[in-house]
Write a structure and sequence with these properties.
This is TetR/AcrR family transcriptional regulator. Keywords: DNA-binding, Transcription, Transcription regulation. InterPro entries: Homeodomain-like_sf (IPR009057), HTH_TetR (IPR001647), Tet_transcr_reg_TetR-rel_C_sf (IPR036271). It is a single chain. The protein is an all-alpha fold and about 190 residues long. The chain is elongated and about 60 Å long. It contains 9 helices and no strands. The N and C termini lie far apart (about 65 Å).
């Protein structure tokens, strides 16, 4: 169509997601999104929606992208829950070590920003954060932990996972992050299973 600018939606959403990930929701302006995506403000509004709508799409993209990796890592939980949780943390540690991704975690950042998010964005951030706990709980239950132990370790491992993102953003070394993971994995290995 003449006069209508064409763009690849996946590329644009990825660029917007990276912008939100680097700067956070509150510190990302429409001008920042325009620079990141290469779209002008009116194209952003007409193609992607307002800032909240675009943020929700980016949070979903992030949660899906890394959620699939976490699911794959936890796939062996029924036979070896300790190895599965270690693989779960490996997904996070690889993301943190990847020079092509921003430091931290978009979900953790969003959860910390809940007081300044719109109600729908805050609910979305809480849902994304809760999905980690549910994913871990299901895996640990499949690994024959009692319901109580599966819930306790799921809450703990999800909290550790988010703290890894925060610690990496604050400059913790890979060795320090690996040591944190080691404590959790060692504790899990001590839990008796029927």
């Amino acid at each position: 169509m003449a006069g209508k600018k064409q763009f690849d939606m996946d590329t644009v959403l990825d660029a917007a997601m990276i912008q939100f990930w680097r700067a956070g929701y509150a510190d990302t302006s429409l001008d920042d999104l325009s620079r990141a995506t290469g779209l002008n403000r009116s194209s952003i509004y007409s193609s992607l929606g307002d800032k909240d709508t675009l943020f929700l799409r980016c949070l979903d993209l992030y949660a899906t992208r890394y959620g699939e990796k976490y699911d794959a890592a936890l796939a062996c939980a029924a036979s070896d829950p300790v190895a599965a949780v270690r693989a779960f943390f490996d997904v996070t540690l690889k993301r943190i070590a990847d020079p092509d991704t921003p430091d931290g975690c978009l979900v953790a950042q969003s959860a910390m920003a809940i007081p300044v998010l719109s109600p729908s964005a805050a609910a979305h951030a809480k849902k994304a954060l809760g999905a980690q706990r549910l994913r871990l709980r299901a895996a640990l239950t499949a690994g024959r932990l009692t319901d109580q132990d599966a819930e306790a370790f799921a809450v703990h491992a999800a909290a550790v996972n988010q703290s890894l993102a925060v610690m990496s953003r604050a400059g913790a070394s890979p060795a320090q992050l690996l040591a944190v993971v080691g404590v959790t994995v060692d504790a899990l290995s001590q839990v008796p299973r029927p």
